[in-house]
Amino acid sequence: MKTKILVSACLMGFKVRYNGQAKPLLTRVLEHWHQEQRLVIHCPELAAGLTTPRLPAELVGGDGFTALMGNAKIQESDGTDVSQSYLLAAWLALKTAQESGCRLALMTDGSPTCGSQKIYDGTFQGITQPGVGVAAALLRQNGIEVYAESELPALIARIEELEG
Fold first, then answer.
1. β-sheet bridge partners, residue 100
2. Torsions phi, psi of 144, nearest 5?
3. What is the pTM (predicted TM-score) of this model?
């Protein structure tokens, strides 16, 4: 059986990011996986009802793990607390991954939802720091391995390992 992968919709060319843009990572490998029906293309933020475009949002006071515990928040650039919408996005990503049988995820780094290596520091100054978004954190807590787009070679190697 082919390993299923939850993948951020923006990486597949869908214009769903906060600024109405995509962040395409269209490679031959992703095209091949898509043809093999391995990919479950999903935007957690859109699934939670957030609009495109929308104000930029950043984690304030911690990372996705901290936010899941209620000790950090997700705030838009105008100061609005949008934590509940982003927490819903995380739970919907987990539900989609589990219902689709995904063992792995390829998600957009830097996002307060999907970031798996880095997130923005909450100052809206374009500064990143090590950390994870809320969906990446929740997926990891539930045994789903999360990779950033910069880790595509590691994801390929992991699939080869899983499938022999």
1. none
2. -100, 125
3. 0.97
